[in-house]
């Protein structure tokens, strides 16, 4: 039997550093992210594995006008739940997010397995997107908060909610603050079977 090739390379350690080092970023610098970089990240992201190569994703890059409408919606949602002060506060904090990307996944109402696999593929693509940007020094935050489940979002962004559902709204920008994170011990989530 042949011996497996050595895997201990600088490139592999770099990949590990990238995967481990990416953090969800909540606070961003007031610095625009080059549009070309974001397009490149989307272009690379869709090389995620997807069963039957269905390419189930759609990426929407939100411009200032659309973001303004999302801020209105966010404020409405929070105001209805927690009152006007909380609504205005949330709007103010969301208005500081430099870049807005919405990813949707196509619906397959008659095929539960397909829809599940498509959603999994979209999640892989979202991770690709986030890692690509992280390598370029850009942080992201994937949210599935109430705005992503509000039917009004579809008409703001212009997608057919009967055909697509939201995978996530992802903000991107240069990090102002990078938080620490931890994970449990490997032994707690890994089972080696004989
Ligand atoms: C599907 C999905 C939905 C998420 N939704 C939210 C969210 O609504 N609000 C939020 O603060 N973080 C959200 N996050 C980010 C997680 O909170 C974050 O990944 C987690 O805290 C681990 O931090 P890390 O990404 O820096 O490792 C979401 C992440 C995923 C994968």
Structural write-up:
The chain is of the alpha+beta class and 194 residues long. It has a single domain, classed as NADH Oxidase (3-Layer(aba) Sandwich), CATH 3.40.109. It has seven helices and four strands, in the order ααβααβαβαβα. Strands 1-2-4-3 form a four-stranded antiparallel β-sheet, covered by helices on one side. Helix 2 (35-45) packs across helix 5 (112-135), helix 3 (64-82) packs antiparallel against helix 4 and helix 3 (64-82) runs antiparallel to helix 6 (151-157). The two termini are 21 Å apart. The relative contact order is 0.21. Bound molecules: flavin mononucleotide. Flavin mononucleotide is lined by residues 23-24, 142-145, 168, 181.
CATH topology: NADH Oxidase
Radius of gyration: 19 Å
| Mean pLDDT score | 97
Read across the widest sheet, the strand sequence of neighbours is 1-2-4-3
Number of strands: 4
The quaternary organization reads as single chain
The secondary-structure element order is: HHEHHEHEHEH
The N- and C-terminal alpha carbons lie at a distance of 21 Å
Structural class: alpha+beta
Helicity, as a percent range = 40-55%
CATH H-level homologous superfamily name: NADH Oxidase
Reported CATH architecture: 3-Layer(aba) Sandwich
| Residue fraction in strands | 5-15%
Determine and state the CATH class: Alpha Beta
Which blocks of ≥5 consecutive residues have pLDDT under 50?
none
Number of domains: 1
- Attached small molecules: flavin mononucleotide
